[in-house]
Amino acid sequence: MPKLLWIFLLVQYIPHISTEVPYLTYSGDIMLGALFPIHKQGEAGELCGQIQDEDGIQPLEALLFTLDEINRNESILPNIKLGAIVRDSCDTPRYAAEQSLDLLQGFMYRSVKTIHPDVFCSNETVKNIVGIIGAQTSQVSLEVARLGRLFKVPQISYLSTAVVLSDQNEFPYFFRTVPSDIHQARAILGVLEVLGYHYASVVHTQTDYGTTGYEALVKYALAGKKVCLAKPLIIQDGNYDDVINNLLKNQMTKVVIVFADRIPAGKLLEAAKNRNVTSKFVWIGSDAWASRESVVYGREEVVEGAIAVQPLRRALPGFSEYFNSLSDLPDNNARNPWYAEYYSTYCNCSLAENIKEMKKAQNICPFKQKSKDAKNVQQQYLHFLRDAVYAFALALDDLRRESCKHTVGVCDKLRLRMYKDLKYYLAKVSFPDVDNFPFRFKNETRDGPARYSIITYYRRPSGEFDWENVGTFQGGEIRDLNLSFSEKNKEASYINSHVTCRRNLCASNEIKIPEGHNDGCCWNCQKCHDFEYKYSEFGCKSCPKEMVPLVRDDGTSDCRLAPEDYLDYTNPWALGALAFAGIGLVMTTITMGVLWKYWNTPVVKACSRELSCVLIMGTFISFCTTFIIVTKPTGFTCGVMRFLIGFCYTLCYAAVVTKTNRISRIFSAQNVVPKCTSPTASVVITLALTSVEVVVLVIWLVIEPASTETISEGKTRILVCKGVDQNFMIGLFFPFLLIISATMYAFKTRKCPGGFNETRFILFTNCINTIHWLAFVPLYLVSADHKIKAVILAYSLSLSGVVQLSCLVLKH
Questions:
Q1: Which terminal CB of the chain, N or C, has fewer other CB atoms within 10 Å?
Q2: Is there a single domain that holds both residue 416 and residue 371?
Q3: What is the spatial distance between Cα 126 and Cα 108, in angstroms, rounded to a whole number?
């Protein structure tokens, strides 16, 4: 059997097992269901508590009063009586959901009957219900709206303001005549701004009403930037004393916004009273509890000076006279099954015992009145209930006009359409409210217009307490605000305007360092470090490896890949190396010119002019290599550098080794001319030795092509040739062997005749270069800066070239 059918059959049975639960029936041709918190929420496991003083019976009687008015009006639903069935929600979501099931039987019946035609509904009155009025609190309305969505039941609340109820995807059949809390949050912040309160603490319940209300406050506070909200305190698990203690610890807290339902709000105020916190705070009340007599009763001195924002407070015309007449003759109000209990509780006496005395004395029962002339003070939100009833009545009337044409009463077509099309007519309904302003539901959210009254709790000259209207919030702004501050208000205003903390406007790359209570409302500004970026108003984070902070034009920041840095011709160190190499090139060119000019002289011939040319060529290449080393690394330049470093040294020392070997063999031979000592042979030997290095370098470049890489130094990405240290060591291995060989031959031939004393200069040159390399290699390897390493390599090549040029060529 389908789940829906089980639910329907179960609900059919519920009335038979709950006949002791009273409910009200106002008979009619078309019925409305209604839920009111006749009794308070129960405690200690009970669902229902004591009967309400003002929030239960008055809304119920306002419903009956409005139905009487509509049914007397022949222009609305002519020949059709609009009735109602009223259930007690006890201001408890679970209990209200159970009670609402009775009101939904007709909708369940119609849904089930399409699948199971043999099903019947035993309660004809309930079957005629076309919509629900209520509930009062947001938590109860949420439960009922979730059930109503399943069975497509139009529902109009007259006082539920939670933001979540505006979600038409979640609650497509929910309407309300009051505005959403999102507007209430704007109104509260507007009041604080006008009064100069730029610092406030927030206490809220962990419910849809409390949480969404707080989130709306934060949203508009951040947008306006005029009111700073301290870190919220959440009411949960009965922690009322802890909340008060935390408020007292914050020395800057004078204004406290309480976004809570009336029961937790009342308990919070009771905890404040027990701590004797009677003049410490100015309470800012939300609509769920502010102005409720049951919340502030017995806590008047704590609440004194409180400011609240309420959906527009207006009297319902004619209702006070109607309601007071019920008190004059309570036995005439038989249609209200809860009135006797209300009357007895409110009068603190039995109804039956006082009827005769009342009639005899022509006086009312001695009510617990707030003032001598206050009979039954009308609740100022009842006009929202009136709007809800009129919305249903006029929407039904519009539907009747289109469906019945000239037919009188409830025609068959109207009876068919009012269960499925009423929602669409409610969305379009428009009528004058009690102030003769046009009322209609907002298209996007189906909320009522955003109108609020600003009220304050004050002590009258007589010593009694009451709420008083002091302004309004309409059109998104505060109007006609006229507060006569109590001493508590004045003190709060002074403290808020003299908060001893800085709220500087921080630059885009600065964060806020909280002061005081660490609530984010007071701060100093501090820059993020060079390697950090600003990820929130109050925090910096280090950028990952090879990333640097990026500050955008709109003030937001992030990390981006660090730009590549490399040695180029604009670097001062590079310019020095280029200048040194340039001088070497000039010296080499002049030397070559002189050698060419005196090519056939005995001196030039004696110095092995062919090998000297090879030596000069190698020196020239070593100076040219500097220009490759200090340019931007690329695959091509890295390959050229890798080749030239080894090649230039090999070319130089191959010539030197050949020369010293030739001298050694000449003087070692005894009366025999050694082979391969001619100039041509010497050049061939030099080129053969050089070819070894060339073959090694070419094979190395083929196997491992030259490329670049980036190396992180802090947050800097240095572009260098890949494996530059390895390249350096491998490329110079063979030249190093040639230097050792040349040094050995030079030492061996150091005592040759004077005409052949060139080996002494070669020995001297090699010793200087050896010392130079012994100093250069450790300095190169330990250098952490890759730019400096490149400069060291460039200077070393140039210095080695100068030594060779000076000691081996210019000596002649």
A1: N
A2: no
A3: 11
Alpha-carbon gap, residue 426 to 254, rounded angstroms: 44
The three-state secondary structure class of 47 is: coil
Please indicate, yes or no, whether residues 676 and 577 belong to a single structural domain of this protein.
yes
292 in the same domain as 268 = yes
Structural domains of the chain, count: 5
Q: Which of 376, 393, 415 is the last residue of a domain?
A: 376
Whether residues 267 and 368 share a domain: the answer is no
Is residue 135 helix, strand or coil? coil
User: Are residues 271 and 256 in contact, defined by beta-carbon separation less than 8 angstroms?
Assistant: no
Q: Distance from CA of residue 738 to its chain's centroid?
A: 69
Residue 351, token pair as written in the block: 């109804």
The CA distance from 61 to 575, in Å, is: 97
Q: What is the CATH number of the domain that holds 620?
A: 1.20.1070.10
Q: Is 476 within the bounds of a domain?
A: yes
Tell me, yes or no, whether 731 and 601 share the same domain. yes
CA pair distance 205, 651, nearest whole angstrom: 87
Going by C-beta distance under 8 Å and a sequence separation of 6 or more, which residues neighbour residue 718? Answer: 564, 565, 566, 710, 711, 712, 786, 787
Of the candidates 188, 191, 202, the one whose C-alpha atom is nearest the C-alpha of residue 281 is 202
CA distance 91 to 159: 13
SS3 at position 394? helix
By C-alpha distance, which of 648, 628, 623 is closest to 638?
Answer: 628
**Which is nearest to 495 in space by CA: 202, 191, 281?**
281
The token pair at 419 is 């269960």
- Among 675, 661, 689, smallest CA distance to 759 is for 661
Distance CA 203, CA 280 (A): 15
Can you tell me the distance from the alpha carbon of 202 to that of 312, in angstroms, rounded to the nearest whole number?
Answer: 23
Pair (47, 166) in one structural domain:
yes
Same-domain pairing of 761 and 613: yes
728-to-104, 649, 696, 725 alpha-carbon distances in Å: 89, 12, 14, 5
Cα 543 versus chain centre, distance: 20
Cα separation, 133 vs 654, whole angstroms:
107
Strand partners, 284: 257, 307
CATH number assigned to the domain comprising residue 148 = 3.40.50.2300
Q: Which of 353, 376, 399 is the last residue of a domain?
A: 376
Q: Which domain holds residue 540?
A: 510-514+522-555
Residue-wise DSSP of 718-779: EEEETTHHHHHHHHTHHHHHHHHHHHHHHHHTTTS-GGGTHHHHHHHHHHHHHHHHHHHHHH
Q: Does residue 651 belong to any structural domain of this protein? A: yes
Q: Let me know the angle formed at the C-alpha of 20 by 15 and 23, rounded to the nearest 5 degrees.
A: 70
CA 415 remoteness from chain centre: 50
Is there a contact between 141 and 132 (Cβ–Cβ < 8 Å)? no
Cα dihedral 181, 183, 189, 193 in deg (nearest 10) = -160
Taking the chain (812 residues) in consecutive chunks of 10 residues, what is each chunk's mean pLDDT? Answer: 46 47 90 93 80 86 96 93 94 88 81 57 71 89 89 92 88 93 87 84 88 87 77 88 89 86 89 87 85 80 88 90 73 80 71 48 43 59 95 95 86 89 94 90 88 86 84 81 59 50 65 66 77 78 76 69 77 83 86 80 69 83 86 87 84 79 67 67 84 87 85 71 72 76 71 57 68 70 72 79 68 50
Residue 719 lies in a domain: no
Structural domain contains residue 561: no
